[in-house]
Amino acid sequence: MRTRALRLVALACICSADDSIPIGLGDGSTQRLQLGWFPRDTDATEAFCSEYSVSSDDCATLYRHVTAKRDGLGRFFVAATDQAAALPSRRLFALLDGELMFRSTGTSNPGRNYPGMWLPTAGICPWWFQQPTEGRPRSFAEITDSATALRAGAEQRVFDKRFAFAYHENEDLEAWAALRDDLRGMAATDGNGRYAFDRFTSLRQLVASIRLGREAWVNAGLGAAADEVLARGAAAGLTTDPVAAPRSSPIVVAGLCEVNDFVTSLRVHIIGWIAARRAICTPAPALLVAELEQLTRQARGAAAALNGASQTAAMGAAVARGAEVCREVSIAGDATGACAFPEIRADLSAYWTHIINLARASGAHDAVDAASQAVKAVRSAANADGRHLVDNARHLVKISVPVEYRASMPSLVYGTAWKRDDTERLARRALAAGFVGFDTACQPKHYDEPALGRAIAGASRERLWIQTKFTPVGGHDDRRPYHVWQPVEDQVRASFSTSLANLGTDYVDALLLHSPLETYELTLRAWRVLEEFHAAGSVRTLGVSNVNFQTFERLWNESTVKPGVVQNRFYNRTGYDRDLRAFCKNHGVAYQGFWTLTGNRNVVSGPVVAEIASRLGKPPVSVYYRALMQLGVVVLDGTKSMDHMREDLEVSDFELDAADVVAIDRALS
């Protein structure tokens, strides 16, 4: 086992492309440390020093090397993508001399002809900005109303490469045009490489690009032009020394709002972003509710038409538009009149999903539930044989509708902790016995998450309820799914990505913080990442484990997506969390108890449970579990016996009298 009492005895800075330095430790081992930490150099350094008990003087030396490396190179790198984007949408970014650049992968249209070349960018902007059709905004500056902002934020997949002018303005456009023409004339061929200059708006951007990667310019037949750019840059007083760019980055920023905020924090000005941000990222709840009500009306009308029924029958009441009452609905795309069902274009599917996610995050649960039920009605009606006749209704079927998964959480969940090499065999046994809920964690110290993934691989994902956890640094041994020097946000992302791969799924029903982190600030930062997963649909319910009431209540009050699960040790040392359980009951939070048998042997084998079990002819454990369930506790069951598994699952077949539940509750004291 690695000792934690280590001292930093040697430190050297290797300024090479791998961007790491070797740290010689007191036990003779060497730890290679990735550099380029930003913006949390202090956090990453302190985490490393704490993990290895590095002295304060040596930690200060380490911090000086880290910051000197970053400041000396004068640039910052970040792999930035939106939450839903798949590779190669993830890009490597650099901030050099005030210019934000991205390295082209050669796969997207604007960068296809010059792979590896660094091009100017302003972060991620919606796809709308690259489709400048009539009525659509072409920059943030053109977003002047809330409705346009909602649509601008709905699709955030494409990096903004065409609108570099949004953060850099040339004072002398004629001089820039003349320089660009001169450089084009130096191209070795008449190929598309000559048009690389159309992507730049200043000499400074060109110099930054060549400093970061001159080889790509040479490969594009622009070597002579690159030399001319550097010469003119030097004459203008710009730094022209080459910069060794790393191959990867430890930082990932996700989401339209997060990325553009991050770009803005680097003092890169995106014209119009600050004014548009509020409407795009935190729109008024009233506007979201109004949009959802429109979706609800459209969906119910579509369901009615698909079923051949009147709109009134589908909605339970007449729908008035102005002075006219609609009792029948037409869904033809070109229909006219007050009772015509409006066309639902395919591109609205992403928009409606976006609105639903924003509304749920804002707390507009009633409107979300109504819209969700209406869309479900379309899905049900679309199963009819004539669904292919109704193209516009089919687009509604594509909408991702959040489902209240807490209602489907089983009252008995199979816990896989401490099963070690038996995890797969026992999970298969539990599945065969009838368990549909499984609890795990991305914590190899106590769980074998990949083994659970193998056990459930052949089962229908829709009928399973899968819960995993992010474990902070202190809960791990050496087998962590992330690096201790990473910011906590990246630790959470790395852990969850590993969990999805381990479990062979693209979503989990619940993701929990295994415990609060070292400080409440870190806990809240980790929770914000969980909220991102929830908004993206990869996590249905969020929660926290091993938490006291005070911390949970604070998290509840300060979170955007409220916790839906609390998982705590159920025993008398905490007073069985009576106050916390009452809070959970009043706020619709599922309370999960573990150690329910181990911590309460005296109750399970005591006279109260024995008398009830004898009278009902039930096993004592079944009676005890049933009482907990009626008290609002979701029980984590870790039995290894197939007979006990089946026996425990039978608790749903009977119910205790209220007096028996009260008696068992009193015994828990």
UniProtKB/TrEMBL annotation:
SUPFAM superfamilies: NAD(P)-linked oxidoreductase. It comes from the Eukaryota. Residues 418-667 form the NADP-dependent oxidoreductase domain. Keywords: Signal. The keyword Signal applies. The keyword Manganese does not apply. One of its GO terms (molecular function) is oxidoreductase activity. Residues 1-17 form the signal peptide. Gene3D superfamilies: NADP-dependent oxidoreductase domain. InterPro entries: AKR, NAD(P)_OxRdtase_dom_sf, NADP_OxRdtase_dom. CDD domains: AKR_AKR1-5-like. Pfam families: Aldo_ket_red (PF00248). This is NADP-dependent oxidoreductase domain-containing protein. It comes from Pelagomonas calceolata.
